[in-house]
């Protein structure tokens, strides 16, 4: 980007024509969703032939990398900080943002860690948007 900020770019598979309007709506909502414990969506392309999502770059990779790499052991204080970060992000998604979002895929690989060891929730591909009067959603198998 022209600001010199490091970014991560995700290329998406094609979206069916039925899902096109839903994809656009979700990008507009997620693009307006900002919290210190969510990976920021900086930009996106709605071009159906080259669909890209541009995110802030997370230098310490995923929580899975930290948990399962013996050379990067976390102390209890760091683990508790990560748990608090995840809880704050989920609270924001479920209770505080304008359109409530249910992530549906919280796992160590979808928790990314920044240069300050702050955990941020990422990968909203399976998330569900709730209507203002909706209190639950069915995810099914």
From TrEMBL:
<protein>
    <recommendedName>
        <fullName>non-specific serine/threonine protein kinase</fullName>
        <ecNumber>2.7.11.1</ecNumber>
    </recommendedName>
</protein>
<dbReference type="Pfam" id="PF00069">
    <property type="entry name" value="Pkinase"/>
</dbReference>
<feature type="domain" description="Protein kinase">
    <location>
        <begin position="1"/>
        <end position="141"/>
    </location>
</feature>
<keyword id="KW-0418">Kinase</keyword>
<dbReference type="InterPro" id="IPR051343">
    <property type="entry name" value="G-type_lectin_kinases/EP1-like"/>
</dbReference>
<dbReference type="InterPro" id="IPR008271">
    <property type="entry name" value="Ser/Thr_kinase_AS"/>
</dbReference>
<dbReference type="InterPro" id="IPR000719">
    <property type="entry name" value="Prot_kinase_dom"/>
</dbReference>
<dbReference type="GO" id="GO:0004674">
    <property type="term" value="F:protein serine/threonine kinase activity"/>
</dbReference>
<keyword id="KW-0067">ATP-binding</keyword>
<keyword id="KW-0732">Signal</keyword>
<keyword id="KW-0808">Transferase</keyword>
<dbReference type="InterPro" id="IPR011009">
    <property type="entry name" value="Kinase-like_dom_sf"/>
</dbReference>
<keyword id="KW-0547">Nucleotide-binding</keyword>
<keyword id="KW-0723">Serine/threonine-protein kinase</keyword>
<dbReference type="GO" id="GO:0005524">
    <property type="term" value="F:ATP binding"/>
</dbReference>
């Amino acid at each position: 980007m022209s600001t010199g900020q490091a970014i991560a770019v995700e290329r998406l598979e094609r979206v069916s024509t039925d899902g096109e309007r839903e994809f656009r709506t979700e990008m507009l909502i997620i693009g307006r969703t900002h919290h210190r414990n969510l990976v920021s969506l900086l930009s996106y392309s709605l071009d159906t032939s080259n669909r890209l999502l541009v995110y802030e770059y997370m230098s310490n990779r995923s929580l899975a990398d930290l948990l399962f790499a013996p050379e990067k052991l976390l102390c209890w204080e760091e683990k508790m900080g990560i748990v608090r970060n995840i809880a704050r992000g989920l609270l924001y998604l479920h209770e505080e943002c304008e359109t409530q979002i249910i992530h549906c895929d919280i796992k160590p690989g979808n928790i990314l860690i920044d240069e300050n060891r702050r955990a941020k929730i990422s990968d909203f591909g399976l998330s569900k948007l709730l209507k203002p009067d909706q209190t639950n959603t069915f995810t099914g198998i």
